[in-house]
Amino acid sequence: MKIRLLAHDSKIPNLAIMKISTYHKMRGDDVDWYDPMFDMYDTDIFYESKIFTFSPDYRYYPVGATIIRGGTGIEVKSKLPDAIEQVTDLDYSLYPDCDYSIQFMSRGCIRKCPFCVVPIKEGAIRRSKPFELNHKGKWIMILDNNFFACPAWRENIEIIRSWNQPVTFQQGLDLRIMTDEMAKALSTIKIKGRGIYIAYDNYEDKDMVLKGISILTKFIKPWKINCYVLVGFQKPYITDEDLERVMTLDKVGVNPFAMGYVDFNNPNYQKPQEIKDFCRWVNMKATFKSCTWDEYKKRSIKSN
Ligand code: SF4
Question: To test the ligand 1 pocket, which listed residue (110, 116, 228) has its Cβ within 8 A of the most ligand atoms?
């Protein structure tokens, strides 16, 4: 059977597509990326993954093929069939230049933040069987939604240590549950560059966030830590509290990373211009360090 794949809005190697590829290759199928120039009329099964609701829809579907579309951008709760979901050997040959491994030690989360799709998509936290590493991989991107909320986090730290490769914790470690034991355990594994991510999404969490950072920085250098700062969710513009959050993080030596809220339920959702400008100001370190938000805003208004 001829199987063709599409993941046109994925910024990193697409996990579902790599599982689908492995599954079909194990069955002896002809599997590759879809190219409408060559595959338009003789593809048997076409799989499309769409991550973002706001990505433009694909237009060049194969004729006569079984078309299977999934991903958060199509249906938040979409799931792979069990036989494909259980695949743990990801097909990295689809991404020959990828020099890292994608990894999950757990799925789901203990929280239900109103702006997040994880509780709807993945449900309660549970341990998951790690994937085989990319044999060309030099480092590992850990994508757990809430690594330390998984009761098996100590065993998971041991597994990561046994891989003996630098890692990043990309999705935000939960400062609300951070303890000395957790922070110390983190310091025993190799962290790649600024590979620790945390989050400061609500101004009201200030005391808890600062306490969590003070625990973390007993064992981890602050410059290794990035902090996601959600803006545009409570109010569709930048508030004094938003500005205070990024300045507080900068003051304690942690790198703020502003994230504009995206409404995954609304395909027509557009981020307000002020939210986009603020994210650009915070995340382009040259501007953040060289001018104030007021100065940057005035310049942006003139150029828009
Ligand atoms: S803690 Fe993180 S992953 Fe969990 S619901 Fe909140 S934002 Fe989502």
Answer: 116
The span from the CA of 151 to the CA of 148, in Å, is 7
Q: What angle do CA 184, 187, 191 make, to 5 degrees?
A: 150
Q: Tell me, what amino acid is at 54?
A: F
Atom of ligand 1 nearest to the CA of 201: 7
Give the C-alpha separation, 119 to 115, whole Å: 10
Closest residue CA from atom 8 of ligand 1: 116
Bridge partners, residue 33, by sequence: 5
28 Cβ contact list (under 8 Å, min separation 6): none
pLDDT tens per residue, range 127-185: 999 999 999 999 999 999 999 999 999 999 999 999 999 999 999 999 999 999 999 99
The residue whose CA has the least distance to atom 1 of ligand 1 is 111
Q: Which H helix or E strand runs over 182?
A: helix 180-186
Distance of alpha carbon 22 from alpha carbon 24, whole angstroms: 6
CA 59 to ligand 1 center in whole angstroms: 33
